[in-house]
Amino acid sequence: MIVYILDFGIARRILNDKDELKTPRATVCFKGTVRFASMACHKNNELGPKDDCESWFYLLLDLIITSGLPWKKIQDRNEVLRVKEECRKDKRDQMFHGVKCKESFGKIMDYIDALHYHDRIDYSYVYDLLKEAAQISGARLEDSYDWEDDNTKSRKRG
Q1: Gene3D superfamilies of this UniProt entry (predicted)?
Q2: Residue 52: HSE in the Cβ half-sphere, 13 Å Cα cutoff
Q3: CB neighbour class for 50 (10 Å; exposed up to 12, middle 13-18, buried from 19)
Q4: Residue 21: φ, ψ to 5°
């Protein structure tokens, strides 16, 4: 499967000439969509791979949870940050409302939250938790996507 990224408008290189993560800037401007922005983005901190994962996770939850993210209808950036912080503490159930695999998703969120700017992401760990979540939810990862044609489906299976 190929995933196409359509908009590089807010992308920037994060590696220096030695292929090392750049030294984080002291402050950065907010960029992106408030709903999917990482907490570091809300706080005007430098963004790294950890923040990409956090944004991806919000997007995943927004697609899975019927009612959407708890801050979906909030416009104010500071209020969205406050709700995101609450969902990590005493209002965690709001984050995974109606989801069968709360524990697996909670582990993913805890893992992402424990990461720092310079940390390498263990994508295998995240993927294993996603497989666990799919199994608990009864999702079949080998099923075809709605947009796949018959040729794509047969190549995928065999």
Answers
A1: Transferase(Phosphotransferase) domain 1
A2: 13
A3: buried
A4: -60, 130
Measured CA to CA, the distance from residue 42 to residue 44 in angstroms comes to 6
**Distance in angstroms (rounded) separating the CA atoms of residues 147 and 153:** 10
Dump pLDDT digits (tens) for 114-123. Answer: 999 999 999 9
Both tokens assigned to 101: 């695999």
User: How many domains are contained in the chain?
Assistant: 1
Residue 16 is assigned to a structural domain of this protein: no
Which CATH number goes with the domain that contains 69? 1.10.510.10
DSSP state string for 80-98:
HHHHHHHHTTTTHHHHTTT
pTM for the structure as a whole: 0.85
Q: Is 55 a member of any domain?
A: yes
Q: How many residues are given for the chain?
A: 158
131 within some domain: yes
Mark the ranges of the chain whose per-residue pLDDT is less than 50: none
Q: Examine residue 90 and state whether it is found in any structural domain, yes or no.
A: yes
Q: Pick the closest to residue 47 from 64, 30, 66, 33 (CA basis).
A: 30
Tell me the sheet residues that pair with 15.
21
